[in-house]
Each structure stands twice: as C-alpha cells, then as structure tokens.
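Final report, closing paragraph on structural work. Over the funding period we assembled a curated collection of sequence-structure pairs, and we close with a single example.
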Amino acid sequence: MTQSPTLPTMTAREVVARTLWGEARGEGRNGMAAVACVIQNRARNPRWWGNSPTAVCLKPYQFSCWLADDPNRAKLLAVTDRDSSYRAALEIADTLLSGRLVDVTNGADHYHTTGVTPAWSAGKKPAAVIGNHRFFRLELK
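Its predicted structure, as stored:
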C-alpha cells in the first residue's frame, strides 16, 4: 500500500464527503454517517490522528480510499454531485462539520468490514455493527 501523493486542493467538506463516499458509499446514508462518527470521534480525541476532520481523513494509512494504489482513490477524486451517494455524503459532511452529527457508533474510533478480521480487532467486541461494518472503541478513554 502506498500513501497518496499530493492531493488537489479541497475544502474540509469535500475531503470528508469524499472519504465517506470512498469508504462507505455502498452502505447508504446510515453507513456513511457511521464512518463520519469515527472521523468525528478521532478529531475530538486527536491522539495522533489530527485535531480536525480533514487531518483525520488524510492521516496516512487510516482510510484506504486515499491510498495511491487503492482503486477507490481515482473514483473519489472524480466523483461529482451528480452522484446521489456523493450528494448524501456532502450532507453528512455538513452535519459533521457543523457539530450536529449524532454518534451512532457508541464512541467508535475504528471500524472494518464484516468480511475481514484485522489483527487489531481480534477478540474485541464491536461497539456497534452498522450494515457491513463493525465499529470499535479502542483509543478513546
């Protein structure tokens, strides 16, 4: 996996929305909102992730859709608001950035799809399961 090279200039809204779309567009509005909650939770308790939603989204190796060799990267850079899922992602990004996003993940700061079990989640109980994603509260205390 290669971290993304320099990205075009984007607003915080675009970075968050493109992250949501790249990570969870197949999960619908609820799935994208759940990923937004992870972004929000990380930004509120920054540790090493960064202290803003943009920094959290673009932190190297945290969201696979931003990796240079991920097939979603080219798609997320090209998507426009003609795509209904991207329009939903923009609305969710607005909610997150305005401070109105309700956390549906019980404080999760990590997640993965139900089809895999990364080493970091082995033996841990999810804080929430939403669609095809399992959400975990690992770092927040």
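The mean pLDDT is 92. The CA atoms of residues 17 and 93 lie 5 Å apart. We thank the funder for supporting this effort.
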